[in-house]
Amino acid sequence: MDTVDTRVADPIELARRNWVEAGWGDAADGMAFVTSLVRAQQLLLGRIEELLRPHGLTFARFEVLRLLAFSRQGVLPVGKVGERLQVHPASVTNAVQRLEDAGLVVRSANPADGRSVLAAITPAGRRLVEACTELLNREVFGPLPIDPADRDAATAALRSLRRGLGD
Amino acid sequence: MDTVDTRVADPIELARRNWVEAGWGDAADGMAFVTSLVRAQQLLLGRIEELLRPHGLTFARFEVLRLLAFSRQGVLPVGKVGERLQVHPASVTNAVQRLEDAGLVVRSANPADGRSVLAAITPAGRRLVEACTELLNREVFGPLPIDPADRDAATAALRSLRRGLGD
DNA sequence: CGAGAATACTTTGATGTCAAACTAATGTCC
DNA sequence: GGACATTAGTTTGACATCAAAGTATTCTCG
Asked: How many residue contacts between A and B have a Cβ separation below 8 Å?
């Protein structure tokens, strides 16, 4: 029997079918792609947050710490942080504030520009971010359940997509 | 000249280099992939929300309306909604509450199960979701700036990734 | 040099998400 | 049949994000 197996179960495939049946065939694959992206991101971020939570970090704060740890002096204007991580200034303020409360970062006025605020990672911040980076590498980034060739092809495709979206 | 062009500018490529230089080469491509995913999702969702905002919808609420409109009677238990959209029950409660406040949905007790709550799309809800779907198809899902073959390959890769992550 | 524009953040308010606790109704099992 | 587990939602609290408004500082020009 070559019947079409109807045990779809995948909500995204179901949605795609609905799109086609509604006469939106020309947008169905785009919708399926976007939905897949959203869902995969959700799963990965969920896993990451779950791993970081016991360490008192969120992914947003981890990224800030990670960026500071990579920077030459462990210090950056918070504006630069937002720029590099591509997040809203208000989000940076929020993250840095909480990191400072946790003693992982220290803020200070930028002597070179009175409008600017510098964020500096503390020794405790460095220790924590190193441990968390290794944790994420070991548990998430390294063993991603995807074929490496597919992964890299997707990364490339996403890069051009990002460009096309004005990134 | 076959010099390696250093005008990277892409924050993700910068991060990948940092990863490799730190000795995490085995996780660098996974990190780059995850980061690309997160960023692309962010850009797409941002564009979608921007388009829906004038209509008083968010993507979360749009998805609920869309699902109800596709359902046989335009009615579903809110639990089913969360299951199909794969969102937390609390998020469904929140979305349905706001949709109801906007007159796009009506809630009622499920006669078949006293614990369950039914959400039904209203005529106004149908009109709005049709208009918004066509808007998103025309502005986002249809003209996605990505090669169709790459897009579909990525969708397939993401699907297996989702499975591998327990979706 | 002084007014107005631009820049760098912070604050506030609205939204969304998830975890955990709580309520109510249904099921299961001696 | 009644105690206990399970299921369906809601509520509450902690966080994150973005838009918009507010504050302070620096830049630009006539």
From this structure: 195
